[in-house]
Queue: 3 jobs
Job 1
Amino acid sequence: MKRELSFKTHSEILDINKTTEAIIGAAVEVHRHLGPGLLESAYEECLCEELSLRKIAFKRQIALPVSYKSKKLDIGYRIDLLINDEVVVDLKTVESILPIHEAQTFGLQTQRIKSSVFSASPLAPSARAGER
């Protein structure tokens, strides 16, 4: 799998870090109110509401074609959330983040997306700590 490297300026890194901190804060707030055990769609809907309340720009369920031999194929891949056109949020309602989950998210990266983040259910210890 070929990946293009993009070098970021110090300012771009700081912007992404601020965005990521805001996303984690919103996700923690949702997890505090909902607790564990709901479907991914419930967490997504509530996270979108929380992001709206915090005036954080986002797009949801964005179609992501797969490039195969220079042709873009629409095979049903979707990005859960794209925040500020720079951070992908791939929602998971799992007890812990496994390497396959990370591989799936990294596979979503496109040239215009600069960073990616997981938001897991409150079952995952990393979600309670506000970390990936």
Job 2
Amino acid sequence: MEESVIVNVDKISASQRELEVTIDAEQAKKIKDRIVKFLHSKVQYPGFRKGKAPLSLFIKKYNNLIEEEFNKAVVQETFKEALEQAKIEYLGDKNDLEINKAEDGSVVYIVTIETHPEFELKDYKNLEIEIPKGPEFTEKFVEEQLNLFLMNYQKFEKTDGPFEPDYFAKVEITLKDSDEKETFTRYITNRFPIDKNLPGNILEILKGKKTGDVVEIDYKKDDKVYKADLKIEQIEKTVVPELTDEFVKENFKDMYSSAEEFMTAYRENLKKRLELDVEKVKKEKLLLELLKNNNFDVPMSEMQRIAVNYLEDLKKKEKREITRDDEQNALYYANISLLRKYLYTKIAEAENIEVTNEDLDKFYEENAKAYNMDTKEYKRAIIKAGLLPQIKQNLLEEKVEKFLLENNTFVEKEEDEKEVEEHSNKEGQSDVNTDGN
């Protein structure tokens, strides 16, 4: 029996397919006749009651409307069958490129759709992957991080000077050669952004100066540079606390009883942080390396859905308007998430990696405990909320990631100066358990 709908598929990219769908003349005529009959009964023809105008007159007058509705109906009524024939899962972004009618009465339309990406899996194991060499866990590193941590608790004390670059200064600036001798106040510290109209080396200019001292500087305003007198009104020096029993009791009395106990916990958490940093870098570099070997695109419709959810969550969490940077970050997050999902799923198929009932039971047990819930109650809540498929996917990706970390080699390389500076400037706050868990 001859098919009334015939489909040819052209693979445009990993996730895009162009379908050429042909509807034979008999099927096209049935759709056309039904459209004409429906419109004839619903559309008022001048001088006649609905459905009573001669059909030939009606078709002639409303031919454009008939053709418009026919084109829509042709795609709507045959698209699902076309997908089934082509054995393609439609994800969205259907784009009707053109509809052509042949002399024999058949109709051909072309649509571009998105589907799950198909690609050939290439090198993903036994690779040598470079990662930046992080800081070593030495006494010097511990001391540096502890000093950064203690700076979170620093205080300011008034002093007459001399000023140091890490001090705080309140200054009065008077423009001398402007039309009006304008005077205004500025605050100078290396802890916060400084007025960009001041000289770039203002901290060095003020170094060694005392309260009441006046220095001449160049001050930019309205694209002009003015001579100005800068008078130091007030200086406050930064006082970083020492790690003592008193400091610990004052700030962490419910967690640690002494500086020694605090320091033991700080060391352990700092060491864990370093290990987690290395693990995070390995995972990031691993994925980037695999994506270089396995280049494919992901469905834009899926990307947009994930990005929209990301932005909605961000807006609820931070209670602010979404910026252009937020939108760019959301698209990047969506793209990298989908690349990871499809690539790791493909690797799971190749390596026969699956999520077992034991994996799910462990997940339920651990998370129920974290939320202080009964395990069965937590499991029912997950299933009821429809979250089980996503949880299974997350667990699958975690198992694949673990496999990849074990089956690839990571080689440390020395960080460049910028990377070292960024790492050394990290605040140490996260290295102490401040929530009691």
Job 3
Amino acid sequence: MPEENLLTLESTYQFNDFKKITEIKKIIWEEPEQTALAAFLMETRAKKSNWSPYFDMFPIGIIRTNPLFFKEQEFEYLIGTDFLGKLQKEKDLLKKDYDILISNILKYSIYSFEEFCLNRLIIAGRAFGFTDGHLEKTQALVPFADFINIGAKKNVNCEFDRNKNCFEFSAINDIKKGEALTINSSPTVFINFWFFDENHGVDGSIQ
């Protein structure tokens, strides 16, 4: 996937004053990269752009089943687990970044906290971290790569090739016709994706 087809952190900086305001005001975010991407996504998803066909494929309905959007009675399913505390901590961190965002970049004050959380979850569950062609660590949305399945045993490598200036996919071993492509994900799969796969291994977010 050529670099120009990636939605990179750097492209969001060109779109708004996020990086400039952060540096001038010396703002300390909880998750600056994901907040910058989420802010860009929150604004551009609301209007037609070259990214619209890709954005329209996001499973918004499924993302809204994440525990962050639970109603009070739904939390009863989590009683007896340590997930309630982890969820509240996650919401507090999201609220901190949201409050900083809308108080420093006023155009985002029209978006609700729920809308911000939705877009942050999209980023958390789909963005890839890598080192770009300038040897800078960055994050980006990589169309189609983020539709690859997650699993404990990956059969595909995804990485940025600095020589070719593209995001490259390569098979680790022979993949049979009809076999699912899999990559590893973060240990907090339960928080980001709201499911637990017994074949994925022990999830660090639940007990």
